[in-house]
Amino acid sequence: MPHWLQLMADSLPSLLWAGLIFTIPLTLLSFVFGLALGLATAIARLFGPAPLSAIARFYVWVIRGTPLLVQLFVIFYGLPSLGILLDAFPAALIGFTLNIGAYSSEIIRAVISSVPKGQWEAAYSIGMSWRQAMSRTILPQAARVAVPPLSNTFISLVKDTSLAAAITVPELFQAAQRIVATTYEPLILYIEAALIYLALSSVLSQLQVRLERRFARYGGMLEANA
């Protein structure tokens, strides 16, 4: 067996284990929390009082205007100067959640705004409250439009988690770095890590296609019933 292939075979279990224990949980938790934060931020911007809407706009402006790596460094290395000490994984989780929250809020705000005003009027005409109209009429329609951009955000997050290596989270990319430090074979190991990220992204892309098709059928059923 060639040396490079043997090295990849030997290092594969360690890389996959790091991805399973750290990369995948960090991705899933960050996306779920970030999506909830994004929904709250979007609703605050669209329907909240002026002070709350201003805070939401400021949050989105700051996060979208600064690099994710800098945000992670501020949380992990900067906050201790204020007496706030965080372990690497929680610091990364907070950083990715805030980042996803800002970007997803813009997507959610746009898709909610794209729902025709007649849908609100129809919901109110049958006695729905604002909360009922939002949860039963507006959000289901907005979700169908939001699937592609939010799926792209999720796939990007999988790759962005490699930045957590910079704050010592032992995820997939840092596992590759540690093996490189002992084998002195950066090209082979980094290509292997890239291939694993590529495989994950490819699987998620296929899931995205299926999800889009399912929502498209759901949308067709709604239009037929209408």
Descriptive terms for the model:
MetI-like fold, 8 helices, 226 residues, single chain
Give the SSE layout.
Blueprint: H1 3-47, H2 50-64, H3 68-78, H4 88-114, H5 117-125, H6 130-160, H7 172-183, H8 186-225
Helix pairs in contact: 1-2, 1-4, 1-7, 1-8, 2-4, 3-4, 4-6, 5-6, 6-8, 7-8
Task: Summarize model confidence as the mean pLDDT.
Answer: 92
CATH topology: MetI-like fold
Radius of gyration equals: 21 Å
Main beta sheet, described?
A: none
Number of helices: 8
Shape descriptor: flat
Q: Strand fraction band?
A: under 5%
The overall strand count is 0
Q: How far apart are the first and last residues' alpha carbons, in Å? A: 63 Å
Q: Write down the secondary-structure element order.
A: HHHHHHHH
* CATH H-level superfamily title: MetI-like
Which residues form runs of ≥5 with pLDDT under 50?
Answer: none
Helix/strand-derived class? Answer: mainly alpha
CATH C-level class: Mainly Alpha
Descriptive notes:
The structure is a single chain. The protein has 226 residues and is mainly alpha-helical. Helices cover 84% and strands 0% of the residues. It has one domain: MetI-like (MetI-like fold). It is built from 8 helices and no strands. Helix 1 packs antiparallel against helix 7 (172-183) and helix 4 (88-114) packs across helix 6. The chain is flat, with a radius of gyration of 21 Å. The termini are far apart.
